[in-house]
Input
Amino acid sequence: MKVAVIGGGIVGLATAHRLLRRRPDVQVLLLEKEAGPGRHQTGHNSGVLHCGLYYKPGSTKARMAVQGIRKMVEFCAEHKVPYDLCGKVVVATEPEEVPRLHDLLERGRANGLEGLQLLGPEQIRELEPHAAGLVGLRVPQEGIVDYAAVADAMVREIRDQGGVIHFSSEVTELRNGKGWRIGTTGGDHEADFLINCAGLYCDRVSRMAGNRDATKIVPFRGEYYKVRPERQHLVRNLIYPVPDPKFPFLGVHFTRLIYGGIEAGPNAVLAFAREGYRYTDFSMRDMVETLTYRGFWRFFLRYPAMCWSEFRRSFSRALFCKSLQRLVPELQLDDLAPGGAGVRAQALSPAGELVQDFYFVAQARALHVLNAPSPAATASLAIADEVIDRIQDAILA
Output
């Protein structure tokens, strides 16, 4: 049995790694269009280890975040990848946010998180002396990590276990007969089973394989600022706002990076390309797909104020700073320096609903991972085990 995994981000790498560990009798081929691993979502996030605070109890996301952080920490310890379970503080800065913070506490407890603690203003300042909040929630199991180093370690593991990886091999054709014939820019391949972990392009790969699921990836760019070195004392670890439960985005926040420095962000704006990391990045194909998708317009018409607010903040450092000052009032405009950006592969339904949970779609001799945004990096090893559990019968046939 030969299994092809499409996508060399952290979910694809974890899937190939776990498949080789659990089924050493299976040949594994991993295909990635870039010249190296984790070049998109994996390599452009802020490196947070999410422990499962936000997700609906009983959801796939909740289960996999709780399992995933444990498995990721074990992987990092085994492979000497830097990580730090430094904890974070979520702060309610407005009275209407306080009930939502209490809801987060109950969600976290229902998901099995340990050590959660409600904080008053003085207790918040004991942990984060420059943070503001009416009520806070301490989350001790949250942490930070170097996901690029995790991806590199997974590549080594896959190769050491006999797996084959082809970089610079973008999939251009999929034909399903008695098995899969896979055309790529780096050559043709064959496989008995296909696992689609293509992230920003998972919906296109799915359609290429003959699957007709109606969800579509809509790319959202998340932009960051960095706090200048002389002002990094304003943040010790991680400071988050109380998120709006209608959206999967957590709001702009502060993150200490594993190798030092403080990052602030991200916002969430429509990207003009699936790899649109800059304002000027534009893909006609990507924009036509987004603007001709009825789900996008239904989403936009349902939340015009939110969309406009995010768009304005994208072009205004002052508005971005104002959002951050709700968490750390001492922060000044000059404290922020330009940072990087990432693009979130967010699945959107035809009804205009953001797909909140991880989403898997089965096909004859294939499984497609069609929604795996945050906390997919943290949960990648748990997602991999879920994928393998779902295809066990097929690859045993």
